[in-house]
Amino acid sequence: WISLGTASLAIFLIILGISAVHGGHTPAASGIETIHPEHIREDPRFSEPGLKEATEGDHDYDLYFIASAFMYEPGEVDIPAGSTVKIHVTSPDVVHGFQVVGTNINMMAEPGLISTYEMTFDEPGEHLIVCNEYCGVGHTDMTSKIKVV
Ligand code: CUA
Asked: How many CB atoms lie within 10 A of CB 114?
């Protein structure tokens, strides 16, 4: 029975390996942009994270966030009501969460990758941003805020 279990595990890992490498089932291969975690601050988009007017695409603004232990940058951001915003999040250290309370936005912030989500903020109000991936001792203090004004 042990050799049967070992064999099925080996088959499973081989299938997983083949699908990841040849099937393109990796984040980078599915079109998610990569960024070197140590060089985030040198990237003009993330050197001053925050709201920037969009230069391409149908959305009005790009909003760049850095999620690190144990804070978000920016710690708070104002968004004009009615605008469509493409949010970009990455991490220089470990995996963090990026959940915007009261919206459908719930992403992972992963070192090496830029997660994105496009959203129109119609109603004025405040949205708390929380980390929902356990990232260390300061996990519960890791918050930011989107103010739709
Ligand atoms: Cu960052 Cu939990």
From this structure: 20
